[in-house]
Write a structure and sequence with these properties.
alpha/beta, 4-stranded parallel sheet
């Protein structure tokens, strides 16, 4: 039963390292995965050399009050610095879908020159699902919610509508 695990704020977990707290989810000594098994068998290992990664970002214009908008350009900058050498050395193919926020023209030009693919427009459910058709890995950056109930619970992603506003997308729709 994994539903109770979804309520754990795993991004806030820490472990003691040299007597100081360190984030468990990103510490190199504690490989971490928030993986929930699927009901069907796992897929066969990839046989292709160029791993295709789609970075899909949702930053709706009307997030609920408790949520802070995502700084999409900063996140893309962090991503490009992090995967830049991996992309070049191992032939990773990276597609970035920054959603309705978009990217500054100078950053777009640099990313395209560096070999990244960009997808314009809001990150609707259809846009997200389109990325699943060709990507081996989907990295989602956005907000969501989980409501626990007697049957386990319901999760939702805060995707975008065509006009960039909030599209509450339930797990049963994805």
């Amino acid at each position: 039963e994994v539903a109770p695990l979804h309520a754990v704020r795993w991004e806030r977990m820490t472990v003691a390292y040299d007597g100081r707290p360190a984030p468990a989810s990103i510490a190199t000594l504690t490989p971490f995965s928030r993986f929930a098994g699927l009901e069907d068998e796992s897929a066969e290992p990839l046989s292709v050399r160029a791993l295709r990664i789609a970075v899909c970002m949702s930053n709706p214009s009307n997030l609920p009050d408790a949520f802070v908008p995502i700084d999409i350009p900063s996140e893309v900058d962090n991503l490009s610095r992090t995967v830049g050498a991996l992309r070049q050395n191992y032939g990773l193919s990276v597609t970035i879908a920054p959603g309705r926020t978009g990217l500054p023209e100078q950053m777009r030009t640099r990313l395209i020159a560096d070999g990244y693919s960009l997808v314009d427009g809001p990150l609707t459910l259809a846009a997200l699902m389109k990325q699943t058709e060709t990507a081996h890995v989907i990295h989602f950056l956005g907000h969501g919610a989980f409501r626990s109930d007697a049957g386990g619970g319901t999760a939702a992603l805060y995707l975008e509508k065509e006009d960039g506003s909030l599209a509450l997308t339930l797990d049963t729709e994805i």
